[in-house]
Design goal:
alpha/beta; globular; nine-stranded mixed sheet; three-stranded parallel sheet
């Protein structure tokens, strides 16, 4: 049974109104891969009455569809930041949206969190609290550089005039908030919560004020760098302090993160009654492309300690792996085989990085993330003991299930982790090659030049070539026809046109293929790479960093590999239409 999304469904349940209404920029897909569905299921499992308004029509009073909730409104832009979902790296409007029925990008407004919060305020005066959540709010919770406006914006909590903001993976935090509001208690000490206050708490660590970091000058950008570093260092639940940042006359307060969920808690969340389908309210509007991939996929864990500088997972999900048990994953896979649309293939079994399942540093679990070094860059930390044995056992258990013909590992794989595993690395790769590749295996070297890779926080080309050789040899030994697909980023800070030319030469000579999966770097809030883009400085060395900011030149960098020089504006004919950015 779906959570109610219409007034008719409320009446059928005998509800006068919900306790909580969740607003989302996505269509309502009831799946553990969709944040709004997960939060709704977690709240409903705890006894709260939850309704969902997905992709409300901003030109009508659609936000009133379910009336007014008793406890709070939960507002999310959806599974993807709305500006990333709506705009290409060159600022052009995207025509397609994988989370919208029919696939046409007409339902999600720019800055969806702000738009939805304003709609609620316009229709319901003096309403119950508005609570922001999801990745769009999570990554914009402090002062942040906004690429699409080319300016530093205030915390989205203050711009939206919302009451609270829950950041990160907020299942536990949202339950605590709902319970506090139901019982009439003050929620402002809940971990993982942000709020505004006239004065900062006595125990907080103060960030440089918004007025200090907002300017487009060297002094302001130095302050912005100090702000971001302090913010990033206080994202680990074991060591983080409460943060405060002055915006005008009000203080943004960020409580420390929630402790990571236990395996048992994550197992329970994935055992809830998801329908694995699009809500009937949307079905008449067309199919949702995202459902094709996520319906028969498994999430084995969350978090990533790769800490690529362009990726926001470390800030949103965390740098610590929280994994599900094999028992839970096998049980979910078994339930998929009973679905009438299941045809024998599990499309993915992984997480942000597939082969981090079962691998974590015990020192980090007890003492928190190291403040002065990373797990994998510039080289693997000796304290991280890499062993793919647990994932091998998981994949074997899944393969043995009756009705499962193939389990594909389509999440990204860190090849440097495989090479670092002297015990099970080669066996893991052989099993993946033999059983878990569907024609092509995705890897993400992103570039080949050491200077660019250093700005990205990625390993060098040596490990890529070693992995390539192993993959090709094992594929030939198995008598299979399959190949590697390489993901590349163009115009990342530190990357010049000649670096892309060097990458093209490297790909032709060493990889024997010209990668076509190329995206132009998009500066998204709360990443180190975005900090580099805004300040034109490497925050780790303090040295100036080349940044290509001209859109035509950024497109020309991509065109070096895609062969679309004319379409990118370097020739006389044609108009460039960039491909949809991979999420």
């Amino acid at each position: 049974m779906f959570l109610p999304a219409t007034k008719k469904e409320l009446r059928s349940l005998g509800w006068d109104r919900p306790d909580i209404i969740l607003i989302s920029g996505d269509a309502y897909i009831d799946s553990p891969f969709i944040g709004t569905a997960v939060i709704g299921r977690v709240l409903a499992d705890a006894g709260f009455r939850v309704g969902i308004i997905a992709q409300p029509d901003v030109h009508e009073n659609d936000i009133c569809r379910l009336g007014e909730p008793k406890l709070f409104w939960g507002v999310s832009g959806g599974s993807v930041d709305s500006m990333v979902a709506n705009r290409t790296a060159s600022g052009k409007r995207r025509k397609q949206d994988d989370y919208t029925p029919g696939g046409e990008n007409t339902r999600r407004p720019d800055r969806a969190v702000l738009v939805y919060a304003n709609l609620i305020r316009s229709q319901f005066k003096n309403t119950c609290p508005i609570v922001l959540g999801g990745i769009e709010a999570s990554l914009r919770r402090i002062a942040h550089y906004d690429y699409w406006g080319n300016t530093v914006r205030r915390s989205v909590l203050l711009d939206a005039k919302a009451d609270f903001l829950l950041y990160g993976m907020a299942e536990r935090a949202v339950l605590e908030l709902a319970s506090c509001l139901r019982n009439g208690n003050d929620p402002r000490r809940i971990r993982g919560l942000c709020y505004a206050a006239p004065e900062p708490p006595a125990d907080c660590l103060k960030l440089p004020a918004y007025e200090e970091v907002k300017g487009d000058n060297r002094q302001a950008k130095k302050a912005f760098t100090r702000m971001f570093r302090r913010f990033y260092e206080n994202n680990d639940p074991v060591t983080a302090r409460r943060l405060a940042q002055l915006h005008g006359s009000r203080w943004l307060i960020q409580n420390p993160p929630q402790p990571h969920l236990s395996t048992e808690e994550l197992d329970h969340i994935h055992s809830l009654d998801y329908q694995l389908d699009l809500h009937p309210f949307h079905q008449q509007q067309g199919e949702v492309r995202a459902l094709e991939t996520i319906r028969f996929s498994l999430t084995s864990h969350r978090g990533c300690y790769g800490e690529c500088n362009f990726c926001a997972i470390a800030v949103h999900q965390g740098r610590t792996i929280v994994q599900r048990s094999r028992t839970s994953l096998v049980a979910e896979a078994r339930s998929l085989t009973a679905h009438p649309a299941f045809k024998g293939r599990i499309h993915d079994a992984g997480g942000p990085t597939a082969n981090m399942y079962g691998i974590e540093c015990r020192k980090k679990l007890n003492k928190g993330c190291c403040p002065d070094k990373r797990c994998l860059f510039p080289r693997k930390c000796k304290a991280l003991l890499v062993d793919h044995g647990e994932q091998l056992r998981l994949l074997e258990d899944l393969r043995r299930l009756k009705g499962v013909k193939q389990v594909v590992v389509s999440s990204g794989i860190r090849y440097d982790l495989i090479l670092a595993d002297k015990k099970n690395g080669l066996n893991y790769l052989r099993q993946v090659v033999r059983h878990h590749v569907s024609g092509q295996m995705k890897v993400a070297p992103e570039h080949c030049r050491d200077t660019v890779l250093a700005c990205m926080g990625k390993p060098g080309q040596e490990s890529l070539l070693r992995f390539r050789d192993l993959f090709n040899r094992m594929t030939a030994q198995e008598g299979l026809t399959q190949f590697l697909t390489y993901y590349i980023i163009a115009a990342h800070p530190g990357c010049r046109q000649q670096d892309m030319q060097a990458l093209k030469h490297f790909a032709q000579k060493e990889l024997k293929v010209l990668p076509r999966q190329v995206q132009i770097f998009t500066p998204t809030p709360s990443t180190w790479s975005t900090l580099m883009y805004w300040t034109c400085e490497d925050p780790f060395t303090g040295q100036p960093c080349f940044v290509e900011k001209d859109n035509r030149a950024r497109e020309r960098q991509k065109a070096v590999l895609t062969g679309s020089e004319r379409r990118s504006g370097t020739g006389r004919k044609g108009k460039y239409s960039p491909r949809k950015r991979r999420s």
